[in-house]
């Protein structure tokens, strides 16, 4: 069990997401950086559906009441266990009573926006509609359907004892292993969506050619971006229709909104594009105030990108097993 | 690499005490693993090390080939074991890229003239997508970082020198 010691605004329990419930109007939720979560679970030998803690605001502090194996991935932070530095993207066994502290770092080559604390066995909260993810809008999943608070005590699931990595073994983070940059800015690949052709040609080209800034009105629900005004050829009025995380809507003001993990399941704004599923984690780690670029892709490109991600994850799993086999054998 | 070369490679692995061997080529991948329980002792020359060679020559699509396979050497928490007779040198636990800092961090893990504690990471060895911490064998003070950042190093190669 771990107890949250800090006033941890916007910290939630997330797994990879709640799929198959959109038909009832229940969004997917899930980790904003699904790759960081997957890496943490790999380090610990957890199943890929194990839930972890997503931290958006530092500092974060928690105490473990018994021995535990934990992994830290995602945003770069100043991490310590009882004052001793914890290596980024690695796992460690902590003693009963140990206190984990995550603070802001001054030295980061890659910053990111969300850190993940994973535990062997996963955070054990009830499964709701197939997932432990917190869905703030509906108040379901996670711990009582809400963000974590100071004093919350979180139970762990049974560890399967199949931990893959020893203390300190780390992973080259996906931002470095699967880089995607354009003109020095992080980029995400986008499929033109249903109303793409209803925008003026110069707006279509602005979408691909100009940087887009992540404004402070950006959260798990969606990212409001600022950049050139995107103008439709003629005003559009649409009926509400189903939308998914990644959809880029353009409201009347012409400043796009990218729907994120806590997106509502329907909306009526025109859609100029959709960030592909394989690149949503890149957006999930784009800090407020940073700028990003969009790269046009197609259906095959989107599927290829998804394959690339799963190939990379299986390579990480295979290499962790190799390294561990060697340690055990010696 | 020919299939007929595998027995020779296997023999070399036994002699060197290497537990797992992986080689990825343009159109093949070989993985040799020695049974862990039947690990030979160097002090017992009578024991012929049984080698379970799960050799797989898998045609792989070129897309799935990454930055090469890892070759892992047998001796254990080797990061913390200095080369014999050279207790003042931290040596590489395997073949890979030596990194002075974690990719996400700007600051090097160790700097000359700074103190280090036994078991403290002084760098990373990158093997494919994995980063192995290179640990200081003892308390001391760093004399020099011997291997350049991101240099390719071999097993047992000196990485960091400690003051005597």
Could you characterize the architecture of this molecule?
The complex is a heterodimer of chains A (330) and B (164). Chain A has helices at residues 34-44, 174-177, 201-209, 280-284, 299-329; strands spanning 2-4, 12-14, 52-55, 60-64, 68-74, 78-81, 84-85, 90-94, 99-103, 115-119, 153-154, 170-171, 181-182, 185-192, 212-218, 222-226, 241-242, 247-249, 257-259, 266-267, 271-275, 291-296. The two termini of chain A are 33 Å apart. In chain A, helix 1 runs parallel beside helix 5 (299-329). Chain A contains five helices and 22 strands. In chain A, the strands form four sheets. Chain A has a seven-stranded mixed β-barrel with strand order 14-21-18-19-16-15-22. Chain A has a six-stranded antiparallel β-sheet with strand order 7-6-9-4-1-11, with no helix packed on it. Chain A has a five-stranded antiparallel β-sheet with strand order 2-3-10-5-8, with helices on one face. Chain A has two domains: 2-171, no CATH class; 181-297, Cyclophilin (Beta Barrel), CATH 2.40.100.10. Chain A is an alpha+beta fold. Chain B has two domains: 3-64, no CATH class; 78-162, Beta Barrel (OB fold (Dihydrolipoamide Acetyltransferase, E2P)). Helix content of chain B is 7%, strand content 28%. Chain B has one helix at residues 6-16; strands at 20-24, 29-33, 89-91, 96-99, 115-116, 121-127, 130-135, 140-145, 151-153, 158-162. In chain B, the strands form three sheets. A four-stranded antiparallel β-sheet of chain B has the order 3-10-8-5, with no helix packed on it. Mean pLDDT of chain B is 75; it is low at 38-86. Chains A and B meet through strand 12, helix 2 and helix 5 of A and strand 6 and strand 7 of B. Strand 12 of chain A pairs antiparallel with strand 7 of chain B, so a sheet runs across the interface.
């Amino acid at each position: 069990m771990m107890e949250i010691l800090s006033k941890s605004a916007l910290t939630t329990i997330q797994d990879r997401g709640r799929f198959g419930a959109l038909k009832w109007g229940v969004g997917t939720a899930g980790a904003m950086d699904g790759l960081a979560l997957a890496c943490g679970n790999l380090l610990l030998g957890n199943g890929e559906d194990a839930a972890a803690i997503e931290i958006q605001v530092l500092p974060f502090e928690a105490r473990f009441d018994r021995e535990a194996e934990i992994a830290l991935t995602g945003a770069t932070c100043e991490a310590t266990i009882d004052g001793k530095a914890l290596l980024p993207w690695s796992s460690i066994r902590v003693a009963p009573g140990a206190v984990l502290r995550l603070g802001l770092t001054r030295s980061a080559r890659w910053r990111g926006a969300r850190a993940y604390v994973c535990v062997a066995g996963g955070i054990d909260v009830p499964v709701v509609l197939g997932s432990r993810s917190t869905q703030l809008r509906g108040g379901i999943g996670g711990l009582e359907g809400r963000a974590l608070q100071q004093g919350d005590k979180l139970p762990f699931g049974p560890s399967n004892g199949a931990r893959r990595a020893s203390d300190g073994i780390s992973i080259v983070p996906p931002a470095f292993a699967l880089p995607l940059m354009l003109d020095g800015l992080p980029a995400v690949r986008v499929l033109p969506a249903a109303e793409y052709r209803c925008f003026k040609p110069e707006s279509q080209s602005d979408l691909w050619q100009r940087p887009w800034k992540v404004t402070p009105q950006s959260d798990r629900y969606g990212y409001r971006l600022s950049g050139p005004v995107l103008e439709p050829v003629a005003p559009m009025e649409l009926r509400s229709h189903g939308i998914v995380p990644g959809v880029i809507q353009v409201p009347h003001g012409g400043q796009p909104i990218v729907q994120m993990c806590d997106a509502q399941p329907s909306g009526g704004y025109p859609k100029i594009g959709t960030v592909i599923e394989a690149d949503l984690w890149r957006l999930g780690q784009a800090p407020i105030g940073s700028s990003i670029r969009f790269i046009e892709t197609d259906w095959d490109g989107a599927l290829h990108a998804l394959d690339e991600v799963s190939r990379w994850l299986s390579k990480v799993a295979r290499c962790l097993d190799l390294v561990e086999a060697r340690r055990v054998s010696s | 690499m020919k299939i007929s070369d595998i027995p020779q490679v296997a023999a070399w692995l036994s002699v060197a005490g290497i537990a797992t061997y992986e080689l990825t080529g343009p159109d093949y991948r070989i993985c040799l693993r020695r049974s862990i329980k039947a690990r030979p002792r160097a002090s017992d020359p009578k024991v012929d090390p049984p080698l379970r060679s799960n050799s797989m020559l898998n045609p792989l699509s070129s897309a799935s080939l990454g930055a090469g396979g890892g070759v892992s050497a047998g001796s254990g928490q080797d990061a913390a074991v200095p080369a014999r007779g050279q207790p003042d040198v931290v040596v590489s636990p395997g073949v890979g890229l030596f990194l002075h800092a974690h990719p996400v961090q700007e600051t090097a893990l160790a700097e000359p003239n700074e103190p280090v504690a036994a078991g403290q990471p002084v760098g990373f060895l990158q093997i494919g997508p994995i980063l192995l911490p290179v640990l200081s064998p003892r308390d001391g003070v760093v004399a020099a970082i011997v291997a350049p950042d991101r240099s390719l190093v071999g097993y047992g190669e000196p990485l960091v020198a400690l003051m005597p």
